[in-house]
C-alpha cells in the first residue's frame, strides 16, 4: 500500500484519580486502537481514599493504600509523566505544568480531585494540613505521632469540619490515640453532620461522645497558631495537629482554562465531556455533572470509569457514546475508628463489625484490580 500510516491519537489522562486508574485497568484488557496513552500525575503511586480512615486508625499500612500508576500505565504500553499540570492551552492543543515539557493532546480527560484547604484562614498554610489530597495528611499524621511519642508535642487535635468525613477521621484518630492522654475536638461553623440520616447522625454523635471527642458547633475559627486556634468568640483552643475537612475546593488553575465552570468545578454533560470542548472530559470530584448534580463522593468516580472509556472510544470513532446517569442514593459505609462501621442508606439502622468486614472486602476487591495480576 502506498498510503501514509495514520498517526496514533494522543490521549492524555491528567491526574491519577480513581476513575483514571480504573480506565487504565480496563484498557489493559481492551486497548484503544490507534491511540497513544499518556498519564500525567505528580507521583507514581496514588492513595486510595476509601482506606484512609483505616490507615489513620492503624488498621492498614501506608503501602496498603497505594495504587501503582506506573504498573497500570506499563500494562497499556503508555507513558507516565511525573508533574503537576497547571496549564491547558486548548487552542494549541498543549498541556503544561511543573516538572515536564508541554505535551500535545488530541483528547484529554481530567481526574485531579479537589482540595480541602482553607487558604483564607490566617495560619492555615503554616500550621494545618488538609485531608485532601490525602498524601500530605498521611505523612503529617505519622510525623505528629512520632513527635507526641517523643514528648515534643502536646497531644491536642482539632478537626475543622463536622461533616461525615471529618467525624470519620476524628474517630479514626481517637482510636489510634486510645490509651494515651489526648484531647480531640471537631469544630464546625454550622451544625454537625447536617447531610446524613437521623439515625446515623444520632449514632455517630454517640460514638464521638464514647471516644471523648468534643463537638463544637457554630464555632468560627479565625486563625491558627503553632499550638492553638483562635475563635471569633474570643476563645482559644489548644491544638498541635489541625486537619481541615471543611473545604471542598477545586484547583485554582482551572479558572485559566476557559472551560465552563460551576463554582470552579468543570461542567460536564451526560457523556462526561466538558461543555466547552468536545475533546476534553472531566470525571471524579473535579467535575460538575450538569445533568445530575451530586455531592462529591468516590462512588461516582468509580462508576464513571466504563463510561469515560466508552466515550473516549466514541471520540476516536470506534464505538457508541454512553450516557452516565448517577444513582440518587448510595450505601455509605462509615468507619467508626475500631473495626466496626455504620451504614447509611434510606435510614436503615445498620451498625456493627460485620459492616467493617464488608467494607474491608469491598476495599480489598477494589485494590486487587491494580495488583500484579490485574485482579485475576
Note down, in words, how this protein is organized:
This protein has two domains: 9-114 and 250-329 and 363-368, FAD/NAD(P)-binding domain (3-Layer(bba) Sandwich), CATH 3.50.50.60; 124-244, FAD/NAD(P)-binding domain (3-Layer(bba) Sandwich). It is 28% helix and 27% strand. With 376 residues, the protein is α/β, with parallel strands linked by helices. The strands form seven sheets. It has a five-stranded parallel sheet with strand order 5-2-1-9-20, covered by helices on one side. The protein has a five-stranded parallel sheet with strand order 10-17-11-12-13. Strands 6-7-8 form a three-stranded antiparallel sheet, with no helix packed on it. It has helices at residues 18-29, 52-57, 69-75, 124-127, 134-149, 164-176, 198-210, 298-315, 353-368, and strands at 9-14, 35-41, 45-47, 66-68, 79-82, 84-89, 94-98, 100-104, 107-110, 129-130, 156-160, 183-187, 214-216, 221-224, 228-231, 236-238, 241-244, 261-262, 265-268, 280-282, 287-289, 332-336, 338-344, 350-352. The mean pLDDT is 92.
